[in-house]
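Q: How would the C-alpha cells look for this protein?
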Amino acid sequence: MQAVRYTEDQILYGLREFWKYRFGSGRQIDLDKRIDLQITYDNGWDDDDLDEVISALPDLFSDLAKYFGFECSIEEWKKELGIQEPIRCLEEWEREIAPHFTFAALVRFIEKRATAVLFQPVVINKECRPAGVFYGLQQITKDVIEESNCFGPSTKIIDVLRGYKLEYFWSQLNWMTEYRILKLSSFWSRVDEYGCGLFFLGMMLATIATAMTQDFTYQIVMIIVGFCVRHVTSLYKHRVNPLPSELQTFRDLAMLIAAHDCDAVRKCEATEH
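A: Here is the predicted structure in C-alpha cell form.
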C-alpha cells in the first residue's frame, strides 16, 4: 500500500504545535512567514544575528525530523531549503536565501518525507473506526516512550504516559486531529511557566536586597529555591492527572477521534476505497 502523507494543513498545524512546544509560541506562524525571522523573534535576538540563526538550524532540523517521524541528514535539509554555505554576509543571506526560506518551503519538505500515522478503520465483521484509531494511538505512544509497551483500549492513559511524555503525546495528537481533542488542564500545562515566573521574580527581589545590603545570602537562597521549585513543578507534572474526566482511557480517546471529521480519519478512509 502506498504511504499516506500528511496534508499541507496538517503539517502547518504540526509546525505551530512544534513551535509552541519548543519556543512557547507558534500561533502566528503562516506559510508566507520567513523561518529565520520567526527564530530571531522567539529567541529575542537582534535582526542582524545571522550567525546565531545559522548555528541554531541543525538542532532545529533534527528536532523537526523527530517530531514528524522521519530521518534526514542536515545536508539534505540545507540543500532543499536553499541554504548554500558559506554565507559571506547578511546582505547575501537577505538577497539569495531569505526570500525562499519560508514555512511554505518547510511544509513541502516535510510533506515529501513524513509518513502519516494511520487511523485506518479495522474490518472484522464490519468496519470499526475506533479500533483503527486505537492502533494509531498505539503507534504514536510507542514513538513517544521509545519502547514497546503493551496496553489495551481499557488501559488508563495516565498509566502509560505521564508528565512531559503525556504532554508530548498530546502535542502530537493536537495537530494530527486539527485540534479536535479536548485540552489538558491549563494549570498543569503551564506550571513550568508559573515556576519560572516565580523564580525570576524572586531573583529580582533578591538582587535588589543584595544591592541594598551587600549581602549575597539572598541570591544564594533564591538559587536553592529555584532548584526546589523546578523539582516541585516536575514532580507535580508527573503525579497529577491533567486529563478531562470524560477522557481517561485509550478507548475514550479513540472514540472521540473517530467521531470527528478530520484529515487524520478522512485520508485513511480514502485509502480503503
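The first strand starts at residue 122 and ends at 123.

DSSP finds 13 helices and two strands in the chain.

Upvote if useful.
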